[in-house]
Specification:
Blueprint lengths: L1 H31 L1 H5 L3 H13 L8 H12 L18 H4 L7 H25 L8 H12 L2 H8 L5 H15 L3 H8 L6 H8 L7 H40 L12 H9 L4 H25 L5 H14 L12 H13 L5 H5 L1 H11 L8 H17 L4 H4 L9
Helix pairs in contact: 3-4, 6-7, 6-9, 9-10, 10-12, 14-15, 15-16, 15-19, 16-19, 18-19
Length: 408
Amino acid sequence: MKKDFDFHRIFVLTGIISLALIYLLLWLRMLTTKSEYDGADFMGLYSAARISQEYGFPFIYDAEMQVDVQSQLVGYPFPVEQTSYFTHPPFILLLVNLISDENYTESLIRWMIILLLLNGASVFILMKSVSALNLGRRSQWILAISTFLFLPTFSGFINGQDVILLLLGTSIWMFQLFGGKPFAAGLGLGLSVIRPQTAILLTAPFLLNRRKVFWGAVLCSGTLGIISLALIGPAGLQRYFNILGVVEGGMGHLPHSLDMPTISGMLRRTFGAMDRNLFRYVIWSGYLGGLTIIGILWRKSRQISEKHVGLLILGSLIVVPYAHYHELTILLIPIFCLIRMLSAKRLVSNAWLAALPLVISFVLMFGFVGEGHLKYILVYTIMFLLAYLLIFPHQINALTRLRRPAGA
C-alpha cells in the first residue's frame, strides 16, 4: 500500500512539474521566434480585429484584406495555404478588440492572459461538477491542476485560439445539467456557437429530449447571432459566406486539413488529396448521418446522464466537418463524466481518478515523438476507451487492477 501511494505521489508531482516546464519553454520559444508567432492562429483573430478597427466590422470577412494585413505583419506576401483566415462569429472580436493594437506581439500576450483566465474559469466550473464526490482536498488540487494543464487546451493556448470559449460553454452546460438546471445548462451550451457546426450537433438532440436545454441554448446563441449580424450587416454576411467557401474549398487538399481528428482529417491522412466534390459529400454526409443517429438515440433515452453527455461530445469530435487538434480540449467533458461515474460506483480510487487528465495529457504528448505517426492513433485510442468505459463502466476492472483503498 505504501509503495503504491509513493508511486502515485511521484508520478503526479513529476508529471505536473514536467508539463508546466514544457509548456513554459514552448511558450517562450513561440514568443521569441518570429516564424512561430507569425504562424499562430491568433493571426486570424488579430487581422480581423485590426480590419474592424480601421475599416469597420462589415469588412472583417474580406479574404483579401485579411491576407494583406497578415502579409504586412510578416513583411512578405503571405502564402494562401498559410493564411489564418478568420471565420468565427463576429461577437468574439468585441473581446479581441480590447487587447489589439498595432503591436502584434503585445496584443498576443494580452490575449493569452485572457485565455488563461478563461481556462481558470472553466476548471473552476468543472471542479464544481465533481464537488459532491468527496474527492478529498489533495485529490481536488491534483485534478484541478491536471485539468488546467490539459494538453489540447495548451495547444489552443499557445496558438492564441478562442477554443477555450467552447470549453467554458460546455463546462457550464455539463455542470448545470447535472445540477438539475436545464435552462441554465442551455445558456452555457449557447456559448458553443463559437464553433457553429459543433453547436448545432450538441444542441439539436435536446429538441427531442430535455427541451429546456434546447431553448436555453437557442436564446444564448440567438442573442450572440443577433449581435454578430448587427455588427457586420448584410454586406458582411455575404463576405462571411464567401470566405467559408474559400476555407471549405481548401479542406480537401491544404496541409492544415491533415491536423484534424474528424472524418475529414481521417480521409486526408488515409487517401491524401481526393476529388473535392467527393470529399465534401463524404464529410457532410457523415455530419448529417451522425446528427440523425444521435437524435434517434436521444429520443429513445429515458434520462440524459453522464454517459449521454460524454458520448455526445466524443461523437461530435468525429463527425463535425471542421475541427483541429485544439478542439480536443472538450475531451475534458467526457473525462469528467467518467470521473463522476467511476467515483460514484467506487470502481477506482479517487486518487487515481484525480490524475486522469494528467495521464491522458502524457499519452497524447507521446504521440508527438519523432515524426508524430502515433499522434492520432493515440487520440482515437483514448476516445475509444472513454466511450467504452462510459457505456460499460464496470469493465474498468478488466483494464486495471487499481482498487479504491480502504478509507479513501
